[in-house]
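Reviewer 2 asked us to include a model.

Predict the structure of this chain.
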Amino acid sequence: MRDPRERLIVALDVSSAAAAQKIVAAVGDSAFTYKVGKQLFTAEGPQIVRDLVASGRQVFLDLKYHDIPSTVASAVREAAKLHVSMLTVHASGGGRMLRAAVDAARNMNPTLMVLAVTVLTSLDDSDLEKMGVRGKVVDQVLRLSALAIADGCDGVVASAQEATELRNELDGEFLIVTPGVRPAGMGRGDQVRVVTPAEAIAAGATHIVVGRPITQAADPTAEARAILGQISF
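Predicted model (structure tokens):
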């Protein structure tokens, strides 16, 4: 990915199609891919995805499917019909669910990338302990990532704080999509495991997801371009 715009995913975490389209227009050609997550998809449904794809944008559908294998496979097939480029499932759904998602995607669109969510960036070691998960966050991320890659997923969603370990421990070329990215000097919000754009790419992330630092900026275009400058290496 020589063009840094291929690495940047802008999160459309808003409640209306009008607000989403305003962001897309403001960012302009500084990004190719936009994340549609639970908030926007619940508010507007699949039409917002169709509209973004029709306008030439790529869509990262971040609905984190997590259910029995047949249900997830059916959902993935419907997502593929929307011509999304990337989608997420929860790695904790287990190997059979992950394989069902991957098989459904491959049968509909071989280029559709299935990404497994490992540990949410709002969680830390103490949270996992309370949930009964043994070990530290990095241990759980490695366990879930190994499972996901073995079952055919194209990559994982993980904090860049775990990206270096993932590259060191797991073989092969796979995507690492990193949320919780904040330019230096910006607040963490509800994220715990936060890194800067440059730190994320240097650690081994292939893509970064950036929301509020761009979408709530006075000048979204300028902020997006500033981030592109930080990951242009």
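The longest strand covers residues 58-65. Residues 31 and 208 are 11 Å apart (CA to CA). We have added this to the supplementary material.
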